[in-house]
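New to this. Please check this record:
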Amino acid sequence: MRLSLPLCAVLGALILDLGPAKAAAPSDPVDPAQLSATVKALASDPFQGRAPGTPGEAVTLDYLIGRFKALGLAPGGEAGSWTQDVPLVHTLMGAPTELRINGLGAPVIPERGRDITLATARPVDAVDIRKAPMVFVGYGVSAPERGWDDFKGADLHGKIAVFLINDPDFEALATDPVAGKFGGKAMTYYGRWTYKFEEAARRGAVGALIVHETPGAGYGWSTVNAGLGEVFDIVRPQGGPEPVLVQGWLQRDAAVALFRRAGLDFEALKVRARRADFHPIAIGAANLTLAAPVTHSLIQSHNILARIPGATRPGETVMFGAHWDAYGVGPPDATGATIRRGANDDGLGVAGVLEIARAFAAAPPPARTVVFAIWTAEERGLLGSETYATHPIYPLATTAANFTMDILETAGPSRDVVLIGAGQDSLEGDLDRAAAAQGRVVTPDSHPERGLFYRADHFSLAKRGVPTLLLMAIGGGPDLVNGGRAAGEKWVDDYTAHCYHKTCDAWDADWDLRGAAQDVDLIYAVGQEVANSSAWPSWNSGSEFAAIRQATAAARP
């Protein structure tokens, strides 16, 4: 579906009628005013929060493809088009007709939304679970390379696996006998909710519930509850592994009370789960009964891809990416607002990609082909980038690097740039040099326990071996020129507490995007160097991705 001329004209007017961003002398080459103009358009009413498979997607596709065409770029998608198909299964679990936990005396009736969140990724008409035993599996980690197995052969078929969030090092003490196996405070992939649901499915569980604790998750209860029973998933091949029938979260206080009724001490069990000799334990005789209707549909969503062909090494690729999707229209908030506009997350990242494309288009053709990827369904589990990574249009073995921007700061210039996932690859040295040329420094993510490295689209390519750089401003407060680190931390706290995934994430004329422009400049500088080089960025020897990249070494000249 494409826009009618009148609506196209409306979108064009959104850009043409803008004044400059606050104190926005253009940087070189990234212009804060252009960043602001793009975000204002993407976060406007016609886009309706940019949810996959909605009319807002059609508006978004037309707008972004139009921007790439205006820059003179070539289509970079399938069969000479501007897009790549991303088929998604969309499920929505309705209000349960039955929801109770038996076996612990009087039935426990958890309140959906307050005590528990529930959803399914399976395209079924209803969920019907009867008296499924509930088993606490600690952190639910199976990591033979680290000498760790939380399951110890436990049979989870037909059961509900109850997990802790994060991984065994998150609350470990220096005196714990195995502290450090999982990188200390820095979350590994074993700490992510996606891994836990996947592991429960691999072990035959009928359901998986994660106990929500804000420090370990990195976000509050309102964030995990934002989906309201809605799930998007990639279309899985017939005969392939199915997700668990029910997945969700238990609010911490509800979990503590449940364990207490079973005669278990939740905090003591958390301590026990930090040990390699932990064994799964039944939550007394607790068993879950759940019946709920499910609506499901197949949605055809799309990644957007544009390219500038390489002049001398066209078969080698450098990629810049961000995600176009947000959360669409939801229930009214306290102000009556319903559109979750995704202005910063990730409208500002998309604006950064467009600015980098503008800079490349104005420069001599690069040696390597440069691809600009705007992904769908990031908010639903990195599904657009995952689809690309499993069906790449440009071979991953000869993709030199991926640069991703997902949430940039809006509080003005800073003395540093925050790097997510520090210590991974050689691109970080390039970033250090580019930052020094700006008179700035690189600061590692101050909250590695939040696992941000595993929560953005670059990860879909990283786990296939492509070296990456991720800029995500909420990894720690930047050292702002106006107010220092304290002001930067306040900006992060305010954004994550009040606007992250909410209607508050809207364009603001008072944003000061000079700091965001600095960061986009850095990504452009490093990416331009890689695009005009014959060298191949590499993973550090201690990275979990080094061996994956090395396995494809023969494909690179």
In short: The chain has two domains: 29-86+301-555, 91-296. Residues 119 and 229 are 5 Å apart (CA to CA).
